[in-house]
Amino acid sequence: MRFYKRLMPVKVLSFDLDDTLYDNVPVITAAETWLLTALKQQRPESTLLSKDNLAAIKRQILLIEPELGHDVSALRLRVLTQGLQQQGMQVAAATALAEEFYQGFLTERSKINVPKTSHQVLSELGQRYPLAVITNGNLPIERTALAPYFDTVLRAGVDGRMKPAPDMFYALANQMKVKPAEILHIGDHIHTDVAGALHSGCQAIWLNDQGRSAADLQSLPQVELERLEQMLELL
Fold first, then answer.
1. Rounded Cα gap, residues 41 and 193, in angstroms
2. Same structural domain for residues 94 and 122?
3. Signed CA dihedral, 36, 143, 138, 109: sign only
4. Is 204 helix (H, G, I), strand (E, B) or coil?
5. Among 71, 92, 109, which residue terminates a domain?
6. Which domain, by its residues, includes 104?
7. What is the pLDDT of residue 90?
8. Predicted local distance difference test score (pLDDT) of residue 122
9. Residue 2 gets which letter from DSSP?
10. Which residues are catalytic?
């Protein structure tokens, strides 16, 4: 545990999800593998919809509509719809099938493995603070074991631009009727979580459980932790 700044009084704790409360990489990898497999099984002609092909479609869409980059759900749906259209489907049919595939993707996406330490930390802190989520991702948290811990869930797209933009931090402050400085945000990402929170006037904890160098930091958080369970020593 390393202190960079004095920790001021806190009224609300906000958490990042992916790679903060669980390991996201294997979940996303499995969900994307499922999606490509389902496409090929249900639409044999969609063999051209490879990972690289879908990534190319995504880049093309973002060149025209960069604002979609703030909503991963809307963007993935658009990519799937356009990919299916390129395979010869009409717009209505492609839209309906893309939604069906996307819901299947979310089912796989929700199969996260929540470590015991995350359960312990959230359970104990939740007895003393309101807990919130501020995420750039599309985890359907209501389908997971994390759902009971959080009073508020803010998602990029629906609730504002992606972190590090201040939208969701300000929205949380308004919803909880606190000042941004009374929010302590916990996350692993030095840009979206640490810099995003600090530039929004909130306090920040950097979960550095991957052994990154502090020289990588763009802005100094209040505290750096090596393990999430150190939250219980801190607060």
1. 39
2. no
3. negative
4. strand
5. 109
6. 26-109
7. 87
8. 98
9. E
10. 16
Residue 76's domain is classified under what CATH number?
1.20.120.1600
In angstroms, rounded to a whole number, what is the distance separating the alpha carbons of residues 35 and 132?
Answer: 30
Report which residue type is found at 206: W
Q: Is the peptide bond before 164 cis (omega within 30 degrees of 0)?
A: yes
CB crowding 104-136: b at 16 or more within 10 Å, else e: ebbebbbebeeeeebeebbeebeeebbbbbbbb
Let me know: does 196 contact 165? Beta carbons within 8 Å.
Answer: yes
CA distances from 99 to 42, 145, 154 (A): 14, 24, 22
Q: Compute the distance between CA of residue 197 and CA of residue 175 in angstroms, rounded to an integer.
A: 16
**CB count, 10 Å around CB of 69?**
16
Residue type, 160: G
Give 10-residue mean pLDDT values along the chain (235 residues): 95 97 96 89 70 89 94 94 86 90 94 97 98 96 96 95 98 98 98 97 97 91 97 95
